Amino acid sequence: MTKINRNRLSDLLDRYPRSQKELAGEIGTDVGTLSRWKTGRIENIRSDKLAKLCEALGVTPTEICAEGPLPETAAGGEAARRDQISMVLDTGCRNALALVARRYGVTRQQIVEVAPLLFAIMAEQSLKERRLELQALKDALVKIEGSAPRHLRNRLHASWNPDDQELLEAEESSIEHRDLFAVRVGHWDENSAKDNPFARFLNARLSETGLPNEEGVAWDDDDAPRYGVGIEELVDILGEDENARRLILDGKVALAEMPGDIRKATQDERAAWVKKEADDVLKTTSELDPATLVNKAREPVRKRRAPEKGDEDDF
């Protein structure tokens, strides 16, 4: 148990952009308990609740529990440096974020905060690999032409398709402009989401890890990525129901919307809830008029329900 500085907590709650009901649901408590922490009627907090409270507020335990008033920089200091970011995140990606956090015992915020570094590393390695492949191709062409009998060299050189040279130049330009998905090379493949160079690179790295994965990485420049990580964690949550697991991996149902009582239920009951939730969404969608369907299709994430009292934010 850790003692809370109620004045600091009160200041931080005043700056929190959402309602206290939403915050209470996110950390797995109720508004009454949150209010008692704020007023000092409850002075101590369990370490697991403190960790969830810190994650939700985007602060460190020190900023909540240290003696003295909250520094002006904290609205601004650590709290401001880790402020709330509003973005629309594909449901499948949200599910993957929760499953990866569960697998490695870290918070979703920690994953998000290291994501720019990991992306930059993967992107640069992908571009480096493409440079090496392009140079190897150029060297091979020179070797083929150079090894030909003299009387065939000119004819071989003349037989090269001008489009081939343009293609090599387009790839070189694509690499120099850090065009990860090779958009500058042109619409060169119907299945570009899986066969573009960045998706292929990520697939290769994923295979090297040995992580269970059913379909690999699919990602192009104008859509959300699909990568299906977290299968072992889903087996732990939903059991062997492959249909329910697929609904979560495909982002048809958000794990975060699973009610607290279902989270505490059996694997079969959780899987049944997932399938029922997907059926309800399908029925709702089928009843919409075409214009509304178009608008719904442009929404990558379903609106999240308000967390209920007792919900644990484990997923």
Question: What report would you give on this structure?
Answer:
The chain is an all-alpha fold. It has 3 domains: 85 residues, lambda repressor-like DNA-binding domains (434 Repressor (Amino-terminal Domain)), CATH 1.10.260.40; 101 residues, no CATH class; 67 residues. The chain has 18 helices and 2 strands. It has a two-stranded antiparallel ribbon with strand order 1-2. Helix 9 packs antiparallel against helix 11. The longest helix is centred in the middle third of the chain and has 40 residues. The two termini are 24 Å apart. The relative contact order is 0.11.
Rounded radius of gyration (Å): 26 Å
Strand count: 2
Number of helices: 18
Give the low-confidence spans. Answer: 73-81, 296-313
Q: Which structural category do the helix and sheet elements fall into?
A: mainly alpha
N-to-C CA distance: 24 Å
Strand order of the largest sheet: 1-2
* Overall number of domains: 3
Helix content: 55-70%
InterPro entries: Cro/C1-type_HTH (IPR001387), Lambda_DNA-bd_dom_sf (IPR010982)
Organism: Aquicoccus porphyridii
Region (Disordered): 284-315
Domain HTH cro/C1-type: 19-64
